[in-house]
# Entry
Amino acid sequence: MSAPALHIRVDTRERGTIISRLEQNEGVSLEFVELEVGDYILPNGVAIERKSATDLILSVVDGSLWEKVDKLKQISTKVIYIVEGDIYTARFHQQALDIHRALAHMVIRENIAVLPSSDAGNSAMLVYLMGLAAHELTPAE
Amino acid sequence: MSAPALHIRVDTRERGTIISRLEQNEGVSLEFVELEVGDYILPNGVAIERKSATDLILSVVDGSLWEKVDKLKQISTKVIYIVEGDIYTARFHQQALDIHRALAHMVIRENIAVLPSSDAGNSAMLVYLMGLAAHELTPAE
# Structure
């Protein structure tokens, strides 16, 4: 049984382990484009933004997260944030309330899923499997 | 400025740190009930299921996750899984693909958010802030 064909649009700034791992999956074709927002565009308009925990926290602190979220929602049917690393590390203790409030707002108000990931290889597996799941969505969903 | 009143229904099996921390927040009232599914019911029908990473993984392996998800979706407008601990630990290496596939399915197909949490105190903060965010939802959302 062969794996289903899966077409993923990838931002040109995405490189390294995650790309080589994604390419190892049978049936995957990657199209590299300069995406204005998002890092991976899966079938049926599902957009994935991949961030390190540190970058996510910094974008909460400087407020740039919400502009990005607005743009992502405009171009997609569903937005997923994959966050690599620990968002609850002690060094950001002073911003803890802000981080938690941002996560709550993203999930409840913006209907965005936030998925933890341990590293790039792990993220590749998540992108691939979410791609397969998104492929099965009907365009109306 | 006083905090807004926030009513949360809590399953009677929830105890310990998370409850004492939740009760510390001004304006929070907890109503303990035997919930058939879910651990916290926030305003406007938002349901929270709180699981340890180990329990989530076991529920993927034995398949009980999907029955729970079905029931949660029936009683709520939105379902959030708070997962305490690391779902990517090496000891579940053999189930890694199953775990990733389950996460992908939950997020893409079931529209469920999966939020990582480090511990019960952290989960309390997430429940409280998601409660405030859910409180601001209009019932139509």
